């Protein structure tokens, strides 16, 4: 495939991942009194796998080239630099979002304060503001890239034999299932350090293997099989979470982490489902999917600012009070409306930023022609 040709299959999965990430943080912000336990468990189990989607998609193309210099240029310019701008924006706006009204916008904002704010980066941790906490993923991505030369050797070895690939899937899945049963006490997977690299690479290599054989899955029979399994998997995950929580398990929520076996399996099945029902093409639908997905990283970066702004405006108190006394209806409608607002706002902001960027780039050319 030409480097200029984007796969609408992959972009659809990227868009799904983006939607889940945004919906997850909207989900966390919507709190309804007397919400049914089953609905609470279901919405958290349903909206848990956005990060897992992104890691698995990374595996589709990560090992296609050994040009590590080119890869690092892309990481720095397209991932790290925009994230650093978000750190600056988060630091500068913290008084507006999180301090009382008697604190001025620029109070206690200084260059020294900014360096202190980002000091956790030295230990591969993200600064703790709500608008920057989600950038742990960027830090993890950089760590993942540091180990790419070594992991590529392993992946090249796995690519030599389908048996090796199956063995890898069986071993990692078995470990992940046992870890789920022990509520993460076996592997103690985390969102930082070397453990996040290991967890991410399992998803990445699974993605690589699935994408390598995606032609096999481009059959409608896989749509039926994987569709049923995804629905059953979400239902079982919800039951497992509720059961664990009812038993007083301290880390019952682990089944909703992207490092769980549930995420590993459900995202793999969802990927196969998309490959089985969707074909790459040049239709208007394909172009629209690629267009929307092209804004996914920017929307990921900026959506916490929109959620924080809504919170500052006391929107969540308002939205949960307009649907009457039915907690189920209130939860569902509040979540849907909130997601639509956050998705639309972050999309428009990113679209405007892109237009401004294009304008800035074209000005020198126009001046030169004049």
How would you summarize this macromolecular structure in one to three sentences?
The protein is mainly alpha-helical and 370 residues long. It has helices at 8-29, 37-46, 50-61, 68-92, 94-98, 111-117, 136-146, 148-158, 162-181, 193-212, 214-217, 220-246, 261-277, 284-293, 296-312, 315-319, 327-369.
Please explain how this structure is put together.
The chain has helices spanning 8-29, 37-46, 50-61, 68-92, 94-98, 111-117, 136-146, 148-158, 162-181, 193-212, 214-217, 220-246, 261-277, 284-293, 296-312, 315-319, 327-369. Helix 1 runs parallel beside helix 15 and helix 10 (193-212) runs parallel beside helix 13 (261-277). The two termini are 39 Å apart. It has 370 residues and is mainly α. The model has no long low-confidence stretch (mean pLDDT 93).
List the helices and strands and how they pair.
Blueprint lengths: L7 H22 L7 H10 L3 H12 L6 H25 L1 H5 L12 H7 L18 H11 L1 H11 L3 H20 L11 H20 L1 H4 L2 H27 L14 H17 L6 H10 L2 H17 L2 H5 L7 H43 L1
Radius of gyration over all CA atoms, rounded: 22 Å
Mean pLDDT: 93
Helix-strand string:
HHHHHHHHHHHHHHHHH
Strand content: under 5%
Instruction: Give the total of beta strands.
Output: 0
Structural class: mainly alpha
What gross morphology would you assign?
Answer: globular
Low-confidence stretches: none
* Helical residue percent band: over 70%
Number of helices: 17
The largest sheet, given as strand count, sense and whether it forms a barrel, is: none
Question: In whole angstroms, how far apart are the ends?
Answer: 39 Å
């Amino acid at each position: 495939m030409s480097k200029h040709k984007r796969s609408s299959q992959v972009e659809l999965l990227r868009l799904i991942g983006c939607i889940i990430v945004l919906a997850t943080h909207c989900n966390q912000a919507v709190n309804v009194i007397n919400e049914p336990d089953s609905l609470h468990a279901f919405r958290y189990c349903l909206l848990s796998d956005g990060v897992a989607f992104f890691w698995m998609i990374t595996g589709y193309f990560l090992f296609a080239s050994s040009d590590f210099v080119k890869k690092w240029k892309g990481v720095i310019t397209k991932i790290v630099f925009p994230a650093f701008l978000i750190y600056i924006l988060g630091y500068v706006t913290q008084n507006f979002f999180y301090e009382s009204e008697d604190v001025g916008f620029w109070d206690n904002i200084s260059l020294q304060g900014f360096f202190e704010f980002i000091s956790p980066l030295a230990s591969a941790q993200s600064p703790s503001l709500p608008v920057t906490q989600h950038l742990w993923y960027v830090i993890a991505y950089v760590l993942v890239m540091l180990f790419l030369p070594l992991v590529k050797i392993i992946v090249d070895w796995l690519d030599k034999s389908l048996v090796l690939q199956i063995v890898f899937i069986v071993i990692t899945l078995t470990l992940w299932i046992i870890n789920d049963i022990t509520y993460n006490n076996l592997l103690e997977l985390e969102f930082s350090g070397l453990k996040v690299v290991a967890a991410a690479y399992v998803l990445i290599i699974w993605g690589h293997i699935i994408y390598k054989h995606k032609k096999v899955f481009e059959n409608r029979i896989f749509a039926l099989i994987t569709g049923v399994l995804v629905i059953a998997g979400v239902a079982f995950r919800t039951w497992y979470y509720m059961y664990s929580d009812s038993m007083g398990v301290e880390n019952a929520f682990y089944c909703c982490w992207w490092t769980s076996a549930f995420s590993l399996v459900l995202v793999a099945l969802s990927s196969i489902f998309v490959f089985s029902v969707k074909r790459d093409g040049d239709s208007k639908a394909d172009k629209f999917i690629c267009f929307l997905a092209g804004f996914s990283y920017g929307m990921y970066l900026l959506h916490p600012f929109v959620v924080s702004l809504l919170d500052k405006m006391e929107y969540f108190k308002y939205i949960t009070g307009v649907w009457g006394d039915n907690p189920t209806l209130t939860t569902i409608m509040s979540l849907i409306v909130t997601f639509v607002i956050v998705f639309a706002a972050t999309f428009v902001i990113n679209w405007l930023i892109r237009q401004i960027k294009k304008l800035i780039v074209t000005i020198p050319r126009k001046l030169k022609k004049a």
